[in-house]
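Handoff note, outgoing to incoming analyst
You'll be picking up this chain. Sequence as last confirmed:
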Amino acid sequence: MLAPYASDPAHSRGRRHPEAPTPHRTEFQRDRDRIVHSTAFRRLVYKTQVFLNHEGDLFRTRLTHSIEVAQLARSIARPLGLAEDLVEAIALAHDLGHTPFGHAGQDALHECMAAHGGFEHNLQSLRVVDHLEERYPRYDGLNLCFETREGILKHCSRANAERLEAAEPGGVGRRFLDRTQPSLEAQLCNLADEIAYNAHDIDDGVRSGLITMEQLGQVPLFDRYRREAEQAHPGLGGRRLLYESIRLMLSAQVHDVIDATRQALLRTGVSRVEDVRQAPQLVCFSDAMREQSSQLKQFLLHNLYRHPQVGETTGLAKEVVRELFAAYAAEPAEMPPAHAERAPTPRAIADYIAGMTDRFAAREHERLTGRRLLPA
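Most recent structure output, in case you need it:
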């Protein structure tokens, strides 16, 4: 039941290492299954979203975030006739390269790698599925389809795109040089990522006590659906009111994306996968919803992500990552043999640190420095 502009697994651009098809699963289903069984996917359960793992059992992690992105993306993909299995595979894999401690860890590792090409978690996610997973006898990585790999690589600098193009002519780096679009499924996952983290960061922010329902009254998008929830359920309060407000907001955003994307497809006359690449971005919010979503993002930036309590743990997390990098650069033998053999290559050290969970990084830092900056 795929639309003509959807990515068809029967016509995939294939894998870097050719494999025979299987009788009962499509190529995109195989990709999803490989991702779910990967080591990097399991580690996401102990990697920070906003709040560090030790700060509470119910806060989102990279794993729960990825599952929520997949759920939202599939909800949008089905009425648009897009390839749901591809959408799910991209969503579940998009954060596989994220460091411990969330964006704080990424920023610190990028500083450590500044003289060696830098560090970017989208590119690292591709590196994980292309090279770092060790599950199969004939090749490194998971050997995913082109379409899945393209969707994982959401952003890429020109310098990195040129390096990818040199290694794989016409591959996943090409669109960043040609300034063309990825598949609709990749576009959808990018937007579903934004919808998911805005919603669950409201939930986690209120649960943590760092933001309040009263403060959220400043946010038109949230306040509208809070008022709808109160009108539909007089006397509703506490967490039930928060959950119902978020549910209504998410539903409205999902319906908005479906309607706005259908209008964009009609307006541009796109009817084939090839047309999608030459068109402007097609999976989108309406103008009004985009503005309201941007206002919500700004609210979360100033009131949650830059909250002094978050900043305190962020600073400690950066210190842990920087000191781990320095320790391994000075004594590569402190890493496991498989990693130490590649050291003191800075990229090998970055690969090792990026693969750590929050608690393992905290324990390793304490082992190497004798200082306990974060609970392990």
